Automatic annotation (TrEMBL):
Chief place where the protein resides: periplasm
Keywords associated with the record: Hydrolase, Periplasm, Protease, Repeat, Serine protease, Signal, Stress response
PDZ domain span: 247-317, 372-420
Matching PROSITE patterns: PDZ
Binding site for substrate: H102, D132, G206, N207, S208
Catalytic reaction list: Acts on substrates that are at least partially unfolded. The cleavage site P1 residue is normally between a pair of hydrophobic residues, such as Val-|-Val
Enzyme class: hydrolase
Secretion signal, residue range per the UniProt entry: 1-21
Protein name: Probable periplasmic serine endoprotease DegP-like
């Protein structure tokens, strides 16, 4: 057999496989051509009062701030214009445009530019800081629009495409895949109402507010955030899913604001040790660490120490799932909630409320208990702290002995213990009795306040 006869079939096979691989990649040209007319570039201007240098008299730099305006130049300080940019897209032909709240927040002037170079002045219909969405309106009709995808169709690994104006480069397209869904990213206010879509699509400053498409040209998300240390894309971008956007647009259009469901609880993650102490087969759910006594959860019978594993039929796998489920529930609606309480499953109907818009633990050396089986020195909580935090009881830790159960559980001086095992701690004397009766070699939950925030940990006595 000649060299040509032996290797030619092999080369033909490689070429054929390469052609098949290339043919399997998506072609975005038609998608971009059909959707880009409804994508807009947003330019904003904010009028900011410039900080001029005040002409203070020699030797009088100590003039109080309240009088310094007397030494400003005539006419006051000059204004300067701060410009920024972002992206958005048209959601209805009569001029409604969706973008990020942070794109237009504080803007005095908003200009919207279409891909065909038409420009309009826009006004803010309403904005929602919690979801970082804003609805704009321009005076126009017959505009091209985009269509929202179905809520639950997105899957990890699916191709997606973004169109926007990164760094001011008009109507740029970038593509990638969905890396994860349901990402919980707390905001600066430590709120978490958006189950973000994570992608590896190249998103940069200026893309904010622009659409994220599936291969059918439907909007699956609104590009909102990037994770970066350099200021540019490193392959971690996050988009607000249409399940959130659809409801926000509807409420902003109807009443200019967004009302969300509210339970009135503070929750924390359930780790392996906490799961064992609460009788769970694996870490799951959202542990209720603290609650508003006037909130919907308290009124419905949910208790501190309950682990919420289902809310209105939705499985709560992690604590971050609960705010997403509650926030999307219409206020006033009664929904079934499943909790694990002292190892047993309980179903509780809860009427959801409406979401509305650090005291340290002081102690006095009275009736202290030294060391004990937990290696903790505890004292009564002062009346002021009891009143401020609406505590019915508890003991404050004043000393933690090294290498003892309390130290291993992560307790610190200043922590206020309010529950040990499944028993409420009302006083120092009661704490002493509970500790004396704790079974050895068992993981038990311990609930305490630290800097005003309730936490659960696990503690075990080895004997």
């Amino acid at each position: 057999m000649t060299f040509k006869q032996f290797y030619l079939p092999f080369f033909l096979l490689v070429i054929s496989l390469g052609a098949q691989a290339r043919s399997g990649l998506p072609d975005f040209t038609d998608l971009i051509e059909s959707t880009s007319p409804a994508v807009v570039k947003i330019n904003t201007v904010e009028h900011v009062k410039a900080r001029g240098r005040m002409q203070l008299p020699p030797g009088r730099q100590d003039v109080p701030d309240i009088f310094r305006h007397l030494f400003e130049p005539p006419g006051g300080m000059p204004e300067r214009n701060v410009q920024s940019m972002g992206s958005g897209f048209i959601v209805s032909a009569d001029g409604y445009i969706l973008t990020n709240n942070h794109v237009v927040d504080g803007a005095d002037e908003i200009q919207v530019r279409l891909s065909d170079r038409r420009e309009y002045s826009a006004t803010v219909v309403g904005s929602d800081e919690r979801s970082d969405l804003a609805l704009l309106k321009v005076d126009a009709t017959g505009l091209p629009t985009l269509k929202f995808a179905k809520d639950d169709d997105l899957k990890v690994g699916q191709w997606v495409l973004a169109i926007g104006s990164p760094f001011g480069l008009d109507f740029s397209a970038s593509a990638g895949i969905v890396s994860a869904i349901g990402r919980s990213i707390p905001s600066e206010r430590n709120e978490n109402y958006v189950p973000f879509i994570q992608t590896d699509v190249a998103i940069n400053p200026g893309n904010s507010g622009g659409p994220l498409f599936n291969l059918d040209g439907e909007v699956v998300g609104i590009n909102s955030q990037i994770y970066t240390r350099s200021g540019g894309s490193i392959g971690l971008s996050f988009a607000i899913p249409v399940s959130v956007a659809r409801e926000v647009v509807s409420q902003l259009k109807e009443k200019g604001r967004v009302d969300r469901g509210w339970l009135g609880v503070v929750i924390q993650e359930v780790d392996r040790d906490l799961a064992a102490s609460f009788g769970l087969s694996k870490p799951m759910g959202a542990l209720v660490a603290q609650m508003d006594p006037r909130g919907p959860a308290a009124k419905s019978g949910i208790q501190v120490g309950d682990v919420i594993i289902k809310f209105d039929g939705m499985t709560i796998s992690t604590s971050g799932d609960l705010p997403h489920a509650v926030g999307g529930t219409p206020p006033g609606e009664t929904v079934p909630v499943t909790v694990i309480r002292e190892g047993k499953k309980t179903n509780i109907p809860v009427t959801v409320g409406t979401l509305g818009g650090d005291a340290a633990a002081a102690s006095k050396p009275v009736d202290s208990i030294d060391g004990g089986r937990l290696g903790l020195v505890v004292e009564p909580v002062d009346e002021q702290t009891m009143k401020e935090w609406q505590l019915a009881g508890g003991v404050v830790v004043t000393k933690v002995l090294p290498n003892e159960p309390g130290a291993k559980a992560g307790l610190r001086p200043g922590d206020i213990i309010v529950q040990l095992g499944f028993n409420d701690v009302a006083s120092v004397q009661e704490f002493s009795k509970i500790v004396a009766q704790l079974p050895p070699n068992n993981l038990l939950p311990i609930r305490f306040y630290r800097h005003g925030r309730a936490l659960f940990r696990t503690i075990s006595i080895a004997e």
